[in-house]
Design goal:
Helix content: over 70%
Order of helices and strands: HHHHHHHHHHHHHHHH
Structural class: mainly alpha
Number of strands: 0
Number of helices: 16
Radius of gyration: 20 Å
Length: 308
Amino acid sequence: MKLFFFLLLFLLILLHPGMSVHFAATGLKLWFECMVPALLPFMILSGIMIRQNLTERFSKVLSPILAPICRLSGHCIYCMILGFLCGFPMGAKTVAELYERKQLTKKEASLLLAFCNNIGPVYFLNFLLPTIGMKKPIQILICTIGMYGIPLCYGIFLRYSNFLLPKGVFTDPTKETLSPTEPFFQSLDDSMQSGIAGITTLGGYMIFFNLLNLIPYVLLSAADSVHTEKIRLFFHCITEITNGVNYCGTQMPFLVLLILPIGGLSCIAQTASMIKNTDLSLKNYLVHKLVQTMLTIFYYYFLCRFLL
């Protein structure tokens, strides 16, 4: 099956070079214009802060609010802040780095990975919502609660229920353990190399998954109908959500909103890349994301559809 799939893709690239270049170039453009300037600085800065043992001090900004509710360590609060503010896949990258440095237990890392890897609010509010036609204040409020309120509440539920979390204990948030602090320029150099390697890998994933859109466009080209176009748009969102938003626009806004929790195949692959050197479970991550997707469907279709 895998061999057939890749042979098909290889054949379509050879037979439709113009369209192949178009999809690949779209992925490259999105990576260069959106991902590099938005994520690379955070990757480098976060790497420096982790290596310089500054995460606990940084997390003290929100610790008075989050620590009593979640009862988690400063390292965990730091992962929550970056996971919610910086976007895919910074949450997974931060969790993996702190877990590898033994600043998080496996139970903490699994918990954080389950809900702290989301679409960034800058992209969500300034680009995604206007693109799909959500411009009214009530629409923006409802969509923002759906995007960030659901995973936050789900994370709190996990913290006290242990649903699909590995056995073990959470560390005492009052007893922080520090790993040795590296020399600053070593931290800078290591963070730079790690950030560049990470962002380059993400670029490869964005190009590859955008290229997969070649398959429905070619195979469905003979059938010109409304349903065919919807299938193509659905495939765009499933493969690479950033590009899918551009194509869907106002045509399928709810589809975009419902795919955002899991982020599409590209975001899943990016997350897998971030945690590949750890023993954290991608399977459990996907289960948690699917649960959040189901909650999002319920939220929009049964609670807020009449307001949107």
